[in-house]
């Protein structure tokens, strides 16, 4: 089979390797679709501490496929079953896992980081992932591509569940990439009255309108604070989501939030830029709720599959470029360029 291995920064090599062997308590998945995520791009450009120098790893944690082989000790996963796999595998025993929050497990493992991921034709699923419930059936109405890109949708659904968007809310989303598009779709479905999206790419801003954005602004060319206040009669946005990793925008988020507003620091900061200056008087006097969210739980993922399968949102529209695994380097170059939304390997 063919697999795309990450060897180091900027070094992806497509190799012919044997189909993985599985133990009696494991599964083998034939990959049908796997999408390149922002995390994959960060690893590609900067490496990852769980992939030490001198080792190699198959990246890819937004995956969908079919059960190709089932270990003799595994039941409930018939051959041919269509499945998707949430990436984070919790330990099952820590306080967070016991609450069902595998995304908060301090010792979690992950496909595409700790385990070989979906940028290959066949992927081994270890026993701990099966026991934890990370193999989830795909609804019949969904394509493999739609199931693969449900993972980023589930992360934005996790954000929505904390923000509790409601009809009448004005939502500001800073960042018009694939994650920003997922935020737009989820908040539109939740009944947001007005959705404003900011970015510094005119191309991305043009595309984001296809997913339900009501207003867009190039914040590299125009003053974002002035624009938001003008569009909200001087009040500010009820919800502000920073779907990017720019420290100054976390600072600005508090300034453009309305009194009693909710602010979600969705995008984490890169190493060395974690310390951000915030005007805490804005939090105090405007009674803001400021929160962070990271990843998604198995429940978030499962509910997101149901939402996408319902047809209420067109999650498949996120896929704007497709490549065979043999063209992995071309696919990564396309994704790094920022053109389109999601880049997907199809098998």
**Oligomeric state:** single chain
Return the string of H and E elements. Answer: EEEHEEEEHEEHEHHEHEHEHEHEHEHEHE
Query: What is the CATH topology of the largest domain?
Result: Quinone Oxidoreductase, Chain A, domain 1
Q: How many domains, as an integer?
A: 2
What does the radius of gyration come to? 20 Å
> What level of helicity do the residues show?
25-40%
The first-level CATH class name of the largest domain: Alpha Beta
How would you sum up the major sheet? 7 strands, mixed
Low-confidence stretches: none
Rounded to the nearest angstrom, the distance between the terminal CA atoms is 11 Å
Beta percentage is 25-35%
What structural category characterises the helix and strand content? alpha/beta
Number-wise, the strands total 18
CATH architectural designation of the largest domain: Alpha-Beta Complex
Q: Averaged pLDDT, please?
A: 96
- Shape assignment: globular
Can you tell me about this structure?
With 347 residues, the protein is of the alpha/beta class. The radius of gyration is 20 Å and the shape is globular. The protein has helices spanning 38-46, 95-98, 127-132, 144-148, 150-163, 178-189, 202-208, 224-231, 247-256, 280-285, 298-309, 328-337; strands spanning 2-8, 11-16, 27-35, 57-58, 62-70, 82-84, 88-89, 109-110, 122-125, 136-137, 170-174, 194-199, 215-218, 237-242, 257-265, 289-292, 319-323, 342-346. A hairpin with a 2-residue loop joins β1 (2-8) and β2 (11-16). The mean pLDDT is 96. Belongs to the zinc-containing alcohol dehydrogenase family. This is Threonine dehydrogenase. Keywords: Metal-binding, Oxidoreductase, Zinc.
């Amino acid at each position: 089979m063919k697999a795309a291995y990450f060897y180091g920064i900027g070094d992806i090599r497509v190799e012919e390797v044997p189909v993985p062997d599985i133990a009696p308590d494991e599964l083998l998945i034939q990959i049908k679709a796997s999408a390149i995520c922002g995390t994959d791009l960060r690893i590609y450009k900067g490496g990852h501490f769980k992939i030490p120098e001198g080792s190699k790893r198959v990246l890819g944690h937004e995956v969908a496929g079919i059960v190709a082989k089932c270990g003799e000790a595994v039941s409930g996963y018939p051959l041919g079953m269509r499945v998707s796999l949430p990436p984070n595998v919790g330990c099952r025993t820590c306080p967070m896992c016991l609450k069902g929050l595998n995304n908060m497990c301090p010792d979690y493992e992950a496909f595409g980081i700790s385990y070989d991921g979906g940028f290959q034709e066949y992927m081994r699923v270890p026993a701990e992932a099966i026991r934890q419930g990370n193999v989830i059936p795909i609804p019949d109405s969904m394509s493999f591509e739609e199931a693969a890109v449900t993972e980023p949708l589930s992360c934005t659904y996790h954000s929505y569940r904390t923000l509790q968007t409601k009809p009448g809310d004005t939502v500001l989303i800073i960042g018009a990439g694939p994650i920003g598009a997922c935020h737009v779709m989820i908040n539109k479905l939740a009944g947001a009255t007005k959705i404003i999206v900011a970015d510094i790419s005119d191309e991305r801003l043009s595309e984001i309108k296809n997913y339900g954005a009501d207003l867009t602004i190039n914040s590299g060319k125009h003053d974002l604070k002035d624009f938001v206040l003008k569009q909200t009669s001087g009040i500010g946005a009820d919800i502000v989501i920073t779907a990017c990793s720019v420290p100054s925008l976390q600072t600005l988020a508090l300034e453009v939030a309305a009194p009693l507003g909710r602010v979600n620091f969705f995008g984490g900061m890169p190493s060395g830029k974690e310390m951000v200056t915030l005007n805490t008087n804005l939090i105090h006097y405007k009674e803001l709720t400021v929160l962070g969210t990271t990843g998604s739980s198995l429940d978030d993922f499962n509910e997101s599959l149901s939402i996408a399968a319902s047809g209420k949102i067109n999650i498949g529209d996120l896929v704007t470029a497709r490549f065979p695994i043999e063209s992995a380097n071309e696919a990564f170059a396309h994704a790094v360029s920022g053109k389109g939304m999601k880049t997907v390997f199809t098998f």
